Amino acid sequence: AQTVTQSQPEMSVQEAETVTLSCTYDTSESNYYLFWYKQPPSRQMILVIRQEAYKQQNATENRFSVNFQKAAKSFSLKISDSQLGDTAMYFCAFMSYNTNAGKSTFGDGTTLTVKP
Amino acid sequence: KAGVTQTPRYLIKTRGQQVTLSCSPISGHRSVSWYQQTPGQGLQFLFEYFSETQRNKGNFPGRFSGRQFSNSRSEMNVSTLELGDSALYLCASSQTGRSGNTEAFFGQGTRLTVV
């Protein structure tokens, strides 16, 4: 079974600065997807960024980028130029390539607060 | 395009009762997954339906069940409610839930409180 670990329950950052959220996972599979989701106080879970394990290039989406280290099973999220609207709980998630379609395993989340 | 719609948004039930939650996926999406979110346990996978068939199931007791209709709408049912069932129940839809179309879109959830 896969496990996802987010070791930072809470983090804070000043507006306009950069912050990195950590995520490690454990799996015996070689093909899988990794995701970062954002859940603001409104509760709506929103996909921030996605990484396919077979791609060596790190995914980026505007101010969001990941550092994917497959051998180390690490998948950190970097938020550049933090904005007040980035305040939310962030979840790292794992999905198997084929065997468990539709099933994601989530970490416990990191609550990020962006301070003005 | 309308997003994932979950109804009701809030629900209060008494121990021992049963409850049915509904999820309408994005039009064209055939996969619907259900998750239970609690402060202590995080997000736990309940089950996933695709084309009216349960394709994956998490480690929850048989009191938790679900189904999917031909229009892809899904319901989950919890019987004999316990206090520990109090949680936010999230539904996610995707086109297939398989590789290449894995992006899941979540609803706003149903907050269930069992008293």
Question: What would you note in describing this structure?
Answer:
Chain A has strands at residues 3-5, 10-14, 19-21, 24-26, 32-39, 46-52, 60-61, 64-69, 74-79, 88-96, 104-106, 110-115. Chain A is mostly beta strands and 116 residues long. Chain A is globular. Chain B is mainly beta and 115 residues long. In chain B, the strands form two sheets. In chain B, strands 2, 4, 5, 6, 9, 10 and 11 form a seven-stranded mixed sheet that branches. In chain B, strands 1-3-8-7 form a four-stranded antiparallel sheet, with no helix packed on it. Classes of the chains: A mainly beta (116), B mainly beta (115).
Topology:
The complex is a heterodimer of chains A (116) and B (115).
Chain A: E1 3-5, E2 10-14, E3 19-21, E4 24-26, E5 32-39, E6 46-52, E7 60-61, E8 64-69, E9 74-79, E10 88-96, E11 104-106, E12 110-115
Parallel strand pairs in A: 2-12
Antiparallel strand pairs in A: 1-4, 3-9, 5-6, 5-10, 7-8, 8-9, 10-11, 10-12
Chain B: E1 5-7, E2 10-13, E3 19-24, E4 31-38, E5 42-50, E6 53-57, E7 64-68, E8 74-78, E9 87-94, E10 105-106, E11 110-114
Parallel strand pairs in B: 2-11
Antiparallel strand pairs in B: 1-3, 3-8, 4-5, 4-9, 5-6, 7-8, 9-10, 9-11
Shape category of chain B: globular
Using the CA coordinates, give the radius of gyration of chain A: 14 Å
C-alpha Rg of chain B, in Å?
13 Å
Residues in β-strands, percent of chain A: over 45%
> Sheet with the most strands of chain A?
6 strands, mixed
Largest interface: A-B, 25 and 27 residues
Structural class of the secondary structure composition of chain B? mainly beta
Query: What is the helix content of chain B?
Result: under 10%
